[in-house]
Design brief:
The protein is of the alpha/beta class. 42% of the residues lie in helices and 17% in strands. It has helices at residues 11-15, 18-34, 58-61, 68-80, 98-106, 148-171, and strands spanning 41-46, 49-55, 88-94, 111-116, 141-143. Strands 2-1-3-4-5 form a 5-stranded mixed sheet. A hairpin with a 2-residue loop joins β1 (41-46) and β2.
Length: 172
């Protein structure tokens, strides 16, 4: 149709639309929330297409490594047949933790776009900054605070509801 942009014809234009891709990560976060998981979602984009998705599954799987980013990285590596995720951009609703930034660095992902900072555990600028550590062999470009209020609200409302449920349980 005239006037509509096709991903195949304009991959760089679509790929640079950070709000669009972050909404896809937010959709993944909502899937986590529906499972009573901390609502963090991730998508990995390459050539104007999502190549992998992930959302937190720590509680569901009882796996401390089941973070949204690591799930998506594993899926992307399988899909591409390579652990090197060059030319990919990772979108995640919350600043990656130390473990996830380690995975991002090891996967050679060149760019991370995230929604809100995590002052208690972030490793992309708030508590730590592994993305630009000269002692490591790979650097990561960061683009923080994309759709920050939406990502932050998703997390704060989840934890508020969790605290309320705990209070109700104690009072009964």
């Amino acid at each position: 149709m005239p006037g509509l942009l096709c991903c195949a014809r304009f991959p760089k234009m679509i790929e640079s639309n950070h709000d669009y891709w972050m909404t896809r990560a937010i959709s993944e976060a909502r899937k986590a929330r529906a499972k009573q998981e901390v609502p963090i979602g991730c998508v990995i984009v390459r050539d104007g297409r999502i190549i992998a998705r992930g959302h937190n599954l720590r509680e569901t799987s009882q796996d401390p490594l089941a973070h949204a980013e690591l799930i998506a990285i594993r899926k992307a590596a399988r899909k591409l047949g390579s652990w090197r995720l060059l030319d990919a951009t990772l979108y995640v609703t919350l600043e990656p933790c130390i473990m996830c930034m380690g995975g991002i660095i090891l996967a050679r992902i060149p760019k991370v776009v995230f929604g809100c900072y995590d002052p208690k555990g972030g490793a992309a600028g708030s508590l730590y900054n592994l993305s630009n550590d000269s002692r490591l062999n790979h650097r990561v470009d960061l683009l923080p605070q994309i759709l920050e209020s939406e990502c932050s609200l998703l997390l704060s409302s989840f934890f508020s509801e969790l605290r309320n449920r705990k209070r109700e349980t104690r009072s009964t």
